[in-house]
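A brief tutorial aside. Many learners find it easier to grasp structure tokens once they have seen a single protein encoded end to end. The record that follows does exactly this for DUF4301 domain-containing protein. Read the sequence first, then the structure, and try to relate runs of similar tokens to stretches of the chain.
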Amino acid sequence: AYLERLALGDVTPSELNDIRRFAEDKFSLSLPATFEQRSDQEQAELLFQALHRPLRICGVVPNTGEPGGGPFWVRHADGTTSLQIVETSQVDTSVETQQTILQKSTHFNPVNLVCGVRDFRSQPFDLMRFTDPEAGFISQKSHDGRALKALELPGLWNGAMAKWNTVFVEVPITTFNPVKTVLDLLRPEHQPAPSARLDDG
């Protein structure tokens, strides 16, 4: 309904405030510092641009120390912030404050994703418009026992979805059964369930 109102261009200052609160509260959207100084029409255009995006709802589990990234607020070059999924390789751990934030992270990478890829008119979004081509990173790999560095292109959720609106939802830890090495397959959660025993009455 908000996008429909904004698209019509007939929004009162009170409605603009409501839409702004919705954007900030529900999606943790960060609007430009000059937003308050803009005209009502400019504010409406900025809010439309901020909300008229694909949506991802990410089910995340509490951080239990598994290797990998997680959900974070990220500050961009223009001073705005957004919710992003960040891999450990993307964090400059030589900076103490960054290392501290990483260590204090409460949740792990998403284990479930629900995606909204059509707009309020039921038209499909051009998903390429909502990627961040600068989100590639260098990761540590190994091959035949040799340590290698690999330049990785933006991944599914940390670059290809960088400009999507994002909501993080905690889901039960039972939905997360990672397999990083072959030995992880020996964990209890990866063992077959016990056979059912029939009762002859």
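Self-check: The helical segments are 2-8, 13-27, 40-51, 96-103. If you spotted this yourself, you are ready for the next section.
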